[in-house]
């Protein structure tokens, strides 16, 4: 009995220590990234509606030197049409279709951003989605030393529930520790809306 309690205590101690270290490391890594790259180096759009990609195309016109990354948005042919209509060359555009939800929007592309030495990104999403996206970005991007500047696309929808935000914070932490996002579970947990 005493041995079982010691094991539980050790496990609890290790988990709380890891979480504490993570909570200290992420803000430090974000601060360093902001110092090293005070201006965003690319535009990252979370798919979820044609209005986000139209907004991104307009936004990209004001930032002509930045690459544009779109994670699982409208069908690729439609996305290409939108950016072409705004005169955005395909050489600036990266459309990635691997993500199945907001957490995987970040986890599927973070290695690509790191390999290109990006330390600061604009993150574009709908206004109602900003709190959840920023919570995920803080954990996923922050753990990798990538700063972000949020840009919201106006939307008339209410801000997402704190339960949904909490769920994706937990999934982001799971990714840090295991490399898995729990995406297969998120669809089963839609009651957390």
TrEMBL record:
<dbReference type="InterPro" id="IPR003848">
    <property type="entry name" value="DUF218"/>
</dbReference>
<dbReference type="InterPro" id="IPR051599">
    <property type="entry name" value="Cell_Envelope_Assoc"/>
</dbReference>
<dbReference type="Pfam" id="PF02698">
    <property type="entry name" value="DUF218"/>
</dbReference>
<dbReference type="GO" id="GO:0005886">
    <property type="term" value="C:plasma membrane"/>
</dbReference>
<feature type="domain" description="DUF218">
    <location>
        <begin position="42"/>
        <end position="161"/>
    </location>
</feature>
<protein>
    <submittedName>
        <fullName>YdcF family protein</fullName>
    </submittedName>
</protein>
């Amino acid at each position: 009995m005493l041995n079982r309690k010691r094991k539980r205590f050790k496990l609890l101690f290790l988990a709380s220590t890891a979480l504490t270290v993570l909570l200290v490391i992420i803000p430090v890594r974000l601060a360093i990234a902001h110092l090293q790259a005070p201006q965003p180096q690319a535009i990252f759009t979370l798919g979820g509606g044609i209005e986000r990609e139209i907004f991104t195309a307009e936004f990209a016109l004001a930032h002509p030197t930045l690459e544009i990354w779109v994670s699982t948005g409208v069908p690729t042919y439609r996305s290409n049409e939108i950016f072409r209509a705004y005169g955005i060359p395909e050489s600036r555009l990266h459309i990635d279709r691997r993500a199945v939800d907001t957490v995987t929007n970040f986890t599927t592309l973070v290695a690509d951003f790191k390999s290109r030495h990006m330390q600061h990104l604009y993150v574009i999403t709908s206004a109602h989605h900003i709190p959840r996206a920023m919570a995920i970005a803080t954990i996923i991007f922050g753990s990798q030393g990538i700063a972000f500047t949020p840009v919201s696309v106006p939307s008339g929808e209410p801000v997402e529930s704190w339960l949904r935000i909490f769920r994706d914070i937990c999934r982001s932490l799971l990714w840090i520790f295991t490399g898995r996002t729990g995406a297969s579970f998120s669809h089963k947990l839609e009651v957390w809306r």
